[in-house]
Amino acid sequence: MTEGQALIARWIERDPRRPGPSEVRLVGYGVAVWALVGALPMVSGDIDELAEAYEVPREAIEAALAYYGQHRAAIDARLVLNAEPITP
Questions:
Q1: How far is CA 65 from CA 17, 78, 84, in A?
Q2: How far apart are alpha carbons 36 and 76 in whole angstroms?
Q3: pLDDT in tens, 68-86
Q4: 14, 19, 25, 27 alpha-carbon torsion, rounded to 10°
């Protein structure tokens, strides 16, 4: 098992209420991986700053980014959906 796979196994879990590879979250924190990935540009890619902003360990952010590397298309699609305006 690679370091990235070990981080994913430790920190990433599926959300039982939201199936699919884009709807995973951090174990013990419940923060969605797609939200972390989407917020990364707001902190200029600074992993430590992102970890501090979400009050999660740096290792959890590293796990989220490793997971993102394996499921980029699904998470990018989720980010696009999240960015679309809601119309009544």
A1: 22, 15, 23
A2: 12
A3: 999 999 999 999 987 767 6
A4: -30
